Amino acid sequence: MIYIILGILALIYLITQPLLIVIYFKMKYGKRVIIQYYPMLGLLRSLSQSRVINGDAFEAFSVLIKNNRQADILVSNLLFRPLIIFLKPKYYRIIMQQHQDYRKFPMIVDKRLVSKGMLMEGGSKWKQQRNLLGVHFEYNKLINLIPMINDVAQKKLINLPNSIFPAMNLASSITGEVVLRAFFGEDIAKLSLNGQDPSQCVTQLITRFGQLITESRFFQIKRALFEEKVFSLFPRQIEKDLYEMNTIMLDHMKKAIQSRMEKLKNCKNFVHQDYLDVYLDVYLNKNDQMNPPITEDEILQQSITLYFAGTETTANLVTTACYFLAEHQQLQEEIYQEIIEVLNGEQTITAKHLQNLQKVTGFLMECLRLKPVAPMLISKQALKDLYIEDIFIKKGWYVNYMVLSNAQNQEFFQNPKNIDIKRWKADGTLKDSSIDPFAFVPFSAGGRNCIGQYLALIESKIVISKILLLYRLKLNEKIIRTEWIAKITYGLSNQDYLTWEKR
Ligand code: HEM
């Protein structure tokens, strides 16, 4: 009995401890602070509430921040710890420059998936991974992928089963195959998951994880108490299904990697065809020079990292773009005319075409500004006591940055709610060079910015151009409520929002 009472007291202490810190912040910094405390769920609670009330998970935050522009930070909680969300670029600059002082919050609880990949790793392991793959994500290397991206997009777009079709399914099927081909090359055929398109599985996985994370208090409490054992203790059906899907995906990827390894074992001077070759070359031939050495599990998790990080994100951008095009018919026509002019009758989009698609680029940047795929970054836990300007952060607390807050800030963008493609230059940078470069960071910034950002933009530009060459997009009038949801990323729910009329 005494243990039960002690357990309950400990739980009450853990739950209320961040509340005391939230109150301390408000008392110390006054109007510079907005507070959002909810036991356990913290910020996630407001996301699910806002989705229900406004049809948009981040609408409540946008309004809150807009009405409190003087605020520098939003203080909330992440499970049992305080979460300090910075709202101004000057603070974000400091966090990014000192990224080694933090470790990322393991959003995806199942440690078998991405914990050893570049997105989540830290310290010397992360540095090694970034050095190994960074060069292959530079623009001059990525342009070699353009023909493959054209082929994948054309193949998936040419014959849609119906005129009403969820854009998210289509987009993730394209972006998923592109990442898989970039990583696994021709071995992608081995990755069909029990006959299902693997990228559809990833979309399902991420949406279900998102649901669990943002909407299930039961899952949150279990997770806070038992961490990765969350799947084995009192699992509900949704958790069992999710775990099972992860296992199937891991097994398939492992087999594809092992079969490639067998092929390469006897080959001394192979030419790198894809990212898996880059990794296996080091693993098989140079691992004794690596400190720390690469493991097979790391290769597996790196491939899943790129797959996760590269599929949903770009698919959300393409889906948002399709939706806005359907909503703004005149803009759709203007962008379509640009594509016709730039391509001048050619079918395959080249690097030269991409450079000249200025309106398409500006439009995609506006989509990222209005509906950033990552409206907040992954929360980061301080590894030591530190200051961000005058704000004290204790070891163990979490920090984050609200990308969304400045992307729609009148101080940086006039008429922030309007799509204005003229804000952007052809290379995707802002025409107004006086705007703080840290004000709009859809791909994060600094040393841990998105390694795949050029790939994402190349891909989205090709896919949107191909879509408009083939289809005229309209809103499906049968759908009366549009839902912008927080999965792990942020974007439209997977519904038939659009009709696809063949041109
Ligand atoms: C519209 C598309 C995309 C958006 C908006 C996006 C956004 C981001 C953001 C905000 C981060 C920083 C996360 C954080 O630290 O909190 C990030 C990191 C990362 N992204 Fe992307 N991303 C996109 C596409 C891609 C693609 C296509 C790939 C690869 C195929 C990719 C791979 C990664 C990786 C590996 C990291 C971790 C980099 C590191 O920590 O060194 N992303 N992305």
Task: Describe the structure in your own words.
β6 (386-388) and β7 form a beta hairpin. The chain contains 18 helices and 12 strands. With 503 residues, it is an alpha+beta fold. The chain folds into 2 domains: 1-104 and 375-407, Uridine Diphospho-n-acetylenolpyruvylglucosamine Reductase, domain 2; 105-374 and 408-502, Cytochrome p450 (Orthogonal Bundle). The chain is 52% helix and 10% strand. α13 crosses α16. It binds protoporphyrin IX containing FE. Protoporphyrin IX containing FE binds next to α13 and α18. Protoporphyrin IX containing FE binds at residues 118-119, 130, 179, 305-306, 309-310, 313-314, 317, 373-374, 377-378, 442-444, 448, 450-452, 455-456.
Give me the secondary-structure topology.
Elements: H1 2-29, E1 33-36, H2 43-54, H3 59-66, E2 73-78, E3 81-86, H4 89-97, E4 102-104, H5 123-134, H6 139-142, H7 146-157, H8 167-184, H9 198-215, H10 217-226, H11 237-264, H12 275-286, H13 296-327, H14 329-343, H15 351-356, H16 358-370, E5 380-382, E6 386-388, E7 391-393, E8 398-401, H17 403-407, H18 453-470, E9 471-475, E10 484-486, E11 490-492, E12 498-502
Parallel strand pairs: 1-2, 3-8
Antiparallel strand pairs: 2-3, 4-5, 5-8, 6-7, 9-12, 10-11
